[in-house]
Structures are given as structure tokens and as C-alpha cells.
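> example.struct
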């Protein structure tokens, strides 16, 4: 075993023979190894390149401001911490693990017991914790630091495997010094080697003469998190043997050769370097969003852009505006300004569901392709949810992303463009970079669209939480549909906003409208993170509404003019009987027309569709809800847009009568337009969202292209017994929303329900007053409603308190004072269960859901993909593809099967039923589909339907159809 040539490494030249013998990595298969000094130098050098070429300047600035030497100190500190992160491997507890490497160290005087002899006590000294302790001792003994000062720096070493140590673990290790240094004559040798390594790193990374100045520093906790995350990323890159090959083969390569080749092989895209957009709002929106030249920017869009430019410091902006006012475009325009001003290196667009995330992803890509060129050849993009790889647009980017290249130190460097040669295309290429994939790293891409869970996970105590903070701290964060998040999710969101404020991350929150109390909570959570007093956000008045606040600042409010677009919606009661609904629709659709019926549960959707088909015929009724397999759900959305989308884009709008019966999937992010709306009673803000699908676009002068009886926008409100003294919502609606929200919604709508044509709901003018009244504390409704409302309120308050209390169990703590180490930062957390079914259930307060892949079992027992699937975009057939059980299916067949994922409904989320269902599903375990041979299907639960698309599961009968999705009934009952 050779330790290398002094001429190949500056760090090596500073070490004696004993320190050179310490090993850091070993490949049991190839018997390769890496000495500690080599990994130290590699890791520190990678950290320097990450600082120079990958870390957004806003994050560099945040770290630099905490240090007396500014950015120069920041770079030195990051490199030094990355360099010393594995110092704990220079201990008996670690070094004893590989006999032949330990023997070499023993020959140099570093005595140690065998791994077996050390026994379970070894677990008290994981090398991260050991390195933290050794670095702290070194700072105290060699540089006269006070013990209370060291932790804020050394925690980046202790936490580099994802969990900062707890105080109890640190104390326990101090009681077992034999794990750090073998007692007896060898103890001094161990101490000398540890000191020699740390001295050499201090000199090599140029911090030896900075440690005295840093002794007085108090690192803010957000800076400690970023330093920890950068150490983790540096370690992961430097630990990749494709990039940094092991000895002995790589022993003859110099440090610089290794680094240049590895960085070329990694080929990380640079962060976005946004430029401040020039020109007025009209020019910007036309250029960024391909608007027709004659299109006029909306007042709320123009006001948001002006406010983003005028704010003293980029911060939080809440944009409240009606549906269809272009809030998404406004958010992206604000994000461009915020990024240019703050030094953010990307954008994360957080949406409520996977479906809305999928819909946003191509819009994000289109916007990126129209941004001015910032000097970078490529930008990394990512779609962040659990089924992103099944999205065809994202899958195309993945296919072009290649892989991390194994290094070739002799390969020619890329040839730079010569002066006078034509430049590349105006925009940077968008890539799904290979290294920026996987649950831990994907959010580090510069531009991300995904579910809001990915943001809420930044508030969930979990392993490698620092990486999630690194991912969001360098971006502008956009949070869409903020009204859609309940009390439990809001507990996590508010804590995340507090940390984002501490990181000075610009945030844009979008909503049709928010209750005043909720708006105030968002503003105070973000700005209060810096400890400043925050004035109350406005309670009412003005709509649309912009509310902005800088970290630690006071809110600023703008009330832009309302758009000239407006709709008066007449709201009428309708009894809940299905025959009454069918009768009413027959009268309404005498001249044809398109109706949207929104039910609050899938069961009511299917019951309603069955009755309406009997009356109107199968071809006149379409069903849309959440219980379709993924590929069918995407096809449903596309079909709805094709038939009911905006004029000029929709090509198949029915000429006769047609009824779409949908669940809440119709509320969000679908630009569809109907002539008449029927809705179950629901919270008023959600009802207003549903109304946004009614007369959404102008169809002829005075809506003359709509059937004559439907040229006035009307909403028929059902799902309740209106004949009772106090409305009685149907049971399914109460289970979903709670009686209190439903009764207050009915109460604030009473003037419109009773007022007839003279009291329509005027959109957008009535949006804010209705929402503020529904969610205020003041009494609403007639006096005889008061007892029912009070009883419902009691249940609501208890439920909300229970939600908030359960959310705090795994919620991240508040931002601590500067200088307080992150010890125990994620103690008592969820471990690695962040982006899993269990993790998503935690941040959403939902039961752990059961997801399956749906296939068909033929009469002969063979398995195949579902028989009705349409060909993919390349024309390749997907229906009925064979899924052999004695070998892995073809990659295309496996991917097609995986695209038929289905989340089973709530019946299968209760513990007893869940366990029974899993046990039954695991009976169809196909060994050939597991592991690397079939990554699409490995570890998936397979639900096999018979040739009639039926099966039994855990006491329930399941029936699936391409037309209606999944229907679940108790076994033995008729559908």
C-alpha cells in the first residue's frame, strides 16, 4: 500500500508517514482504497468549485455577511469544513473496520483493537460525531477557542451524514475516549496524527491565520445549515469513485488532475444569473409569455411587477386576484425581478397536487426558453413529485440528461468558442441533470415545479434536512393555491416561511383570496423570523390585493384596479335528489349546453353520473375524479381541455348537451369553461374557484354563442337539505370539510340565495367580502342558525387544535439565536421518511395511503398492461403489452405498467384494512421484477384485475373502467 508522491499533493507534503497511512474509503469488491489525506483534499477542492461555479450569489452573500473577511472568508470556511469533515476516520473506532488497512496503520504505531473486540461501543463514535469532537478539541487546544464557540462551526462535520448530533451523544463519546484514541503508549501517536491532519488542513485551505478572527463570530443558524449542506454535497461528489477513482490505480494522479477531470465529468449546470428585466410591464409580459401584441397586461400583473421593483429588499409578496387574471404569469415576472435583485439562482413553483404540478411544468419550461441568455449553456430543471418520471415531457429531458461521466484525466478539455464565432441559441439548454436526481438531490436543480409537499418537507425534522434547505435557500419560491392548505399544512408552511425569511429567500404566494387572519399569519411568519415587529396586514378592503413585506420589515399594501372582466353569477338552491337534478338539467339543456356538476366525494360523482346517463345517454356524460390510474387521469385532463377549453384552443366542444360530473379535480388549474354550474355546498372560497369555471371566457357578444337559456351565468347549489330550519349538508361533504365551514359558507351566501336575480354574486367584486365574512370570527346567518353554528364551531376548534398539535410533533423548531449550534436540530424526527407515503401523510395530515400499479390478469393467468391504453406520443402501442412473470418485462412495457399507478381511496387507509390489503397484494410478488432488472416495477404493489376489470381486496369489491375509474363497494353488495 502506497500513500502517494509528495509532488502530487500539497496536503500530502505536510504529513508524516504515520498520518499518511490513515485510510478513508475501501471498495470491498475491487479492493481499492483511498487514504484520508486524499479524500480531505478532494472534498475541500470540490467545495471550492461549488462555491465558485454552482452556489447562487445570494447564498454566498448570506454566508459571507457572517464572517469578518466577507466572501473570501466564506470560500475558505466552506473548503476547510469540507476538507476536515472526515477527520473522525482517524480514530480506532473507524479504522478497525478493514483488517488489511488497519494493519498498515498498526505498523506505523497506531494500535487498535479489532472490530469484534470493540463490540457495540463502536456505535457511540460514528465518524461524523468523532470528527466534530476532534475538531472542537483542536480549536480549543491549538487556537484557544472557548468550548461554547466551537459547536457552531464543528456541527457541519458532525452532521455531514444528515443528522446533527444531539448533546447526549456528544457527552457519551467524551466518556469513551478509547474510541477516539487507543489508551496506552499509542494514545499519543493517535493524538499526534489527528493534530497533524488538522494542522495540515488549516494551512492547505488557508484558514490558519483566520481562526483568531473567527473566534468572535456568531454564525446564524441558517448559515450553519448551509455550511452543513455544502459539506454533504462536497462529500457525496468526492466520494463518487467514477469521479474520484480509488488507489492504487489513481495514486499517480496529481490533485489538480483529479479535480479537473472530475469536475468535467460531473458537468454541473451553473445557477441562473437573472438579469433585471427592462421595459414596462406590457413589453415584459408580451416577450416572456408569447402574448399577442394587442393583448393588454392586467392591472394586478402590472402592479405586482412595479411593487417587486420598488420594494426596498426582495421578500414575501402575496398576490390575491380572481381566477383567470394571470397570477401565474405575474408570479414568474416577479420571480425574475426578485432573482435579479436577490441573487437567487432558480425558481421553485409549489402546487397543491401532482396533476397541477404536471400542468405547470411545460409552462415553466416555456417561460425559461424565453428568458434572456444569462451566459450559461445549460440550466437544470426538475419535476418534483413521486411520479415525475412518468411525465412524458420530463422523461424526455431525463433521456437526454445522460449520466455522470467516468473521468478521463487525459481527455481534451472542451474547446472554448473563439472570438467572432456565432454564439449558441439565445436561451440556455434545459437539462434534467443525472447527478441532480433522486429523493435527496433532485430539489437542488435550479428550476423545479412540484407539489407543495416538497416545500413543507423543509419544515419536517428528517435526515438530510439541510439539503432541502440548501435547495430552497437559493431560489425564488412560488406557492400557488395558498387557500387550499388546511390548518395542519399551514403549521408546517408557517415554520418553513420563518426559515425562508431568515435565509432572505424571496417568496410569492398566490391565491384567489385569503381570509384576513391567514394573510396576516403568512406575513408575520415570514417577516417575524428576523425578530422585527410586524404591523397587522389589512383585514379587508380592496380587491385584487397585493401584500408585500421584507424580512424583518413592515407590510406594504397595494390595491390595483380590478380588471374590466367580470361575471355576475346567480346562485340558486337545488334539492339534493338525483331525479330532481336530472329533471332540472333537462329543462336547462333544452337548447343544448355544457354543464359542470361538482360533487364533494367520488362516491357522489359516480352515483350522479349513473342517474344522468340513464336520462341523457352514455355519450352525454363525462366523469372526472381522482380515482383514475395516472395515465387515464392525464388523458381525462387533456380531453376536458380539448373539449371545454378556451375559444380558439378547444377543438371539440360539444354542439349538443353535455354534462361533466367531477370531484374537486375541477377546482384547480384547469382552464375549462361551462355554460352552467351545479355544485355541492362547500367552503365559499372553493365555491368561488368552481365558479371560475363558469362563463370563464367570452363566447360571442353578450355570450351570444351559448344556448339562449344559459347566457346568464348561474350556479345551482345542492348537496344540502335546504328545507330544514338550518341547512343540513350531506354526510360526505361534512366528512370532507366539516359542518362549520359549510354552514358559514351557506350563511354568507344567503343574501344571494334569497335575493334572486337582483343579488347575483359579482365576480370579482364579491370574492373578498364573501371570503372575509365566511372566515371571520363575527356571527353570521339568521338567529335560529346560531345553536347549530356554535355546536359546529366547537367541533371545528377541537379538530383544528388537534391538527396543529399533531403537526408540531415532527415540525422543525424555530430559527435559533446566532451562534447557537444546531445540535439536536432534527432530533426525534421521521428519519428518512420525508418524501415517502408516510412523510406526505405527515405534512398533509392524511392517513398513509396505499398506492398500487394496476395490470390485467388474462384467463390463462398471464399479466398484461391495461387493454384500452392509447399509443404514446411516438405512436408505440401500450395496450395489452405482455408482462412476463419469469423475467423482467421490457423497459417500455414496465414503464407503461408503472404509468397505471393508482392511489386507493380512504377505505384502504385504516390500519386493519391497510394491513390486510398489503398482505393480499404481496401474494402477487414477482421476483423477476425486483431490483435493478426492472426499476419501474421494483417494490411496487401490483393490483391485478380480471378480464372484466374486477377484483376483491380486503373485503371490498373493486371495479375499474376507463370511463368511470375505480368504484369500491363492500364485498357482496351491488354497485
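> example.seq
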Amino acid at each position: 500500500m502506497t500513500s502517494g508522491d509528495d509532488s502530487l499533493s500539497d496536503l500530502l507534503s505536510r504529513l508524516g508517514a504515520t498520518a499518511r497511512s490513515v485510510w478513508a474509503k475501501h471498495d470491498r469488491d475491487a479492493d481499492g482504497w483511498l487514504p484520508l489525506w486524499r479524500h480531505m483534499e478532494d472534498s475541500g477542492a470540490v467545495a471550492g468549485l461549488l462555491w465558485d461555479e454552482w452556489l447562487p450569489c445570494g447564498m454566498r452573500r448570506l454566508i459571507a455577511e457572517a464572517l469578518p473577511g466577507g466572501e473570501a472568508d466564506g470560500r475558505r470556511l466552506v473548503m476547510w469544513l469540507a476538507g476536515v469533515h472526515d477527520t473522525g476516520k482517524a480514530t480506532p473506532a473507524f479504522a478497525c473496520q478493514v483488517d488489511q488497512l488497519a494493519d498498515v496503520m498498526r505498523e506505523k504505531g497506531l494500535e487498535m483493537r479489532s472490530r469484534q473486540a470493540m463490540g457495540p461501543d463502536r456505535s457511540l463514535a460514528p465518524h461524523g460525531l468523532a470528527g466534530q469532537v476532534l475538531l472542537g478539541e483542536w480549536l480549543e487546544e491549538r487556537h484557544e477557542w472557548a468550548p461554547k464557540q466551537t459547536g457552531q462551526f464543528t456541527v457541519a462535520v458532525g452532521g455531514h451524514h444528515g443528522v446533527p448530533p444531539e448533546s447526549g451523544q456528544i457527552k457519551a463519546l467524551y466518556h469513551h475516549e478509547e474510541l477516539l484514541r487507543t489508551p496506552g503508549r499509542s494514545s499519543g501517536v493517535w493524538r499526534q496524527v489527528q493534530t497533524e491532519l488538522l494542522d495540515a488542513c488549516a494551512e492547505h485551505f488557508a484558514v490558519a491565520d483566520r481562526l483568531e478572527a473567527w473566534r468572535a463570530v456568531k454564525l446564524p443558524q441558517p448559515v450553519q445549515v448551509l455550511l452543513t449542506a455544502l459539506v454533504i454535497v462536497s462529500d457525496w461528489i468526492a466520494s463518487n469513485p467514477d469521479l474520484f477513482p480509488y488507489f492504487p490505480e489513481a495514486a499517480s494522479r496529481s490533485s489538480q488532475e483529479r479535480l479537473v477531470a472530475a469536475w468535467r465529468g460531473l458537468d454541473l449546470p451553473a445557477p441562473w444569473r437573472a438579469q433585471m428585466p427592462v421595459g414596462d410591464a406590457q413589453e415584459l409580459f408580451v416577450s416572456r409569455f408569447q402574448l399577442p401584441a394587442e393583448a393588454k397586461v392586467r392591472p394586478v400583473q402590472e402592479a405586482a411587477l412595479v411593487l417587486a421593483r420598488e420594494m426596498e429588499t426582495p421578500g414575501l409578496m402575496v398576490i390575491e386576484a380572481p381566477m383567470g387574471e394571470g397570477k401565474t404569469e405575474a408570479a414568474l415576472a416577479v420571480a425574475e425581478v426578485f432573482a435579479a435583485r436577490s441573487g437567487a439562482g432558480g425558481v421553485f413553483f409549489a402546487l397543491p397536487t401532482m396533476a397541477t404540478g404536471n400542468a405547470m411544468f411545460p409552462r415553466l419550461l416555456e417561460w425559461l426558453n424565453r428568458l434572456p441568455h444569462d451566459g450559461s449553456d445549460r440550466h437544470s430543471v426538475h419535476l418534483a413529485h413521486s411520479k415525475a418520471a412518468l411525465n412524458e415531457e420530463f422523461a424526455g429531458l431525463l433521456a437526454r440528461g445522460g449520466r455522470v461521466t467516468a473521468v478521463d484525466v487525459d481527455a481534451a478539455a472542451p474547446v472554448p468558442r473563439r472570438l467572432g464565432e456565432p454564439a449558441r441559441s439565445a436561451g440556455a439548454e434545459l437539462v434534467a441533470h443525472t447527478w441532480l436526481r433522486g429523493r435527496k438531490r433532485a430539489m437542488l436543480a435550479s428550476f423545479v415545479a412540484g407539489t407543495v409537499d416538497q416545500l413543507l418537507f423543509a419544515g419536517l425534522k428528517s435526515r438530510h434536512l439541510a439539503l432541502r434547505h440548501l435547495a430552497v435557500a437559493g431560489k425564488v419560491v412560488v406557492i400557488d393555491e395558498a387557500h387550499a392548505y388546511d390548518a395542519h399544512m399551514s403549521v408546517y408552511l408557517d415554520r418553513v416561511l420563518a426559515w425562508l425569511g431568515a435565509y432572505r429567500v424571496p417568496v410569492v404566494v398566490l391565491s384567489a383570496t385569503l381570509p384576513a387572519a391567514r394573510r396576516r399569519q403568512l406575513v408575520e411568519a415570514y417577516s417575524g423570523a428576523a425578530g422585527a415587529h410586524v404591523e397587522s396586514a389589512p383585514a379587508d378592503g380592496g380587491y385584487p390585493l397585493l401584500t408585500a413585506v421584507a424580512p424583518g420589515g413592515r407590510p406594504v399594501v397595494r390595491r390595483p384596479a380590478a380588471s374590466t372582466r367580470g361575471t355576475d353569477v346567480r346562485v340558486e338552491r337545488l334539492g339534493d335528489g338525483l331525479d330532481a337534478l336530472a329533471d332540472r338539467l333537462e329543462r336547462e339543456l333544452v337548447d343544448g349546453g355544457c354543464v359542470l356538476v361538482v360533487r364533494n366525494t367520488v362516491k357522489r360523482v359516480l352515483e350522479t353520473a349513473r342517474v344522468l346517463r340513464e336520462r341523457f345517454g352514455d355519450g352525454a356524460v363525462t366523469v372526472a375524479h381522482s380515482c383514475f390510474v395516472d395515465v387515464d387521469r392525464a388523458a381525462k385532463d387533456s380531453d376536458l381541455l380539448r373539449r371545454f377549453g378556451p375559444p380558439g384552443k378547444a377543438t371539440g366542444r360539444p354542439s349538443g348537451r353535455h354534462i361533466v360530473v367531477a370531484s374537486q379535480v375541477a377546482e384547480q388549474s384547469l382552464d375549462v369553461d361551462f355554460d352552467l354550474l351545479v355544485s355541492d355546498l362547500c367552503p365559499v372560497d372553493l365555491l368561488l374557484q368552481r365558479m371560475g369555471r363558469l362563463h370563464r371566457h367570452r363566447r360571442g357578444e353578450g355570450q351570444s354563442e351559448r344556448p339562449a337559456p344559459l347566457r346568464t351565468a348561474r350556479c345551482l347549489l345542492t348537496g344540502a337539505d335546504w328545507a330544514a330550519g338550518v341547512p343540513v349538508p350531506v354526510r360526505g361533504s361534512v366528512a370532507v370539510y366539516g359542518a362549520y365551514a359549510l354552514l358559514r359558507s351557506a350563511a354568507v351566501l344567503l343574501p344571494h340565495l334569497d335575493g334572486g336575480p337582483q343579488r347575483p354574486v359579482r365576480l370579482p367584486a364579491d370574492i373578498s367580502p364573501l371570503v372575509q365574512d365566511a372566515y371571520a370570527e363575527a356571527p353570521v346567518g339568521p338567529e335560529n342558525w346560531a345553536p347549530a353554528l356554535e355546536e359546529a364551531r366547537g367541533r371545528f376548534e377541537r379538530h383544528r387544535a388537534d391538527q396543529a398539535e399533531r403537526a408540531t410533533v415532527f415540525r422543525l423548531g424555530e430559527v435559533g439565536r446566532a451562534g447557537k449550534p444546531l445540535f439536536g436540530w432534527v432530533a426525534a424526527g421521521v428519519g428518512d421518511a420525508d418524501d415517502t407515503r408516510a412523510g406526505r401523510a405527515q405534512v398533509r395530515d392524511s392517513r398513509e395511503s396505499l398506492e398500487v400499479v394496476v395490470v390485467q390478469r388474462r384467463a390463462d393467468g398471464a399479466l398484461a398492461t391495461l387493454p384500452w391504453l392509447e399509443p404514446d406520443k411516438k405512436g408505440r402501442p401500450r395496450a395489452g403489452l405482455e408482462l412476463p412473470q419469469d423475467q423482467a418485462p421490457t423497459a417500455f412495457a414496465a414503464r407503461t405498467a408503472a404509468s397505471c399507478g393508482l392511489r386507493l381511496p380512504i377505505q384502504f387507509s385504516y390500519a386493519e384494512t391497510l394491513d390486510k390489503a398489503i398482505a393480499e397484494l404481496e401474494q402477487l410478488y414477482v421476483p423477476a421484477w425486483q431490483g435493478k432488472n426492472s426499476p419501474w416495477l421494483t417494490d411496487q404493489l401490483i393490483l391485478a384485475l380480471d378480464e372484466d376489470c374486477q377484483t376483491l381486496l380486503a373485503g371490498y369489491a373493486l371495479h375499474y373502467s376507463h370511463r368511470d375509474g375505480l368504484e369500491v363497494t363492500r364485498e357482496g353488495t351491488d354497485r
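> remarks
The CA atoms of residues 747 and 781 lie 5 Å apart.
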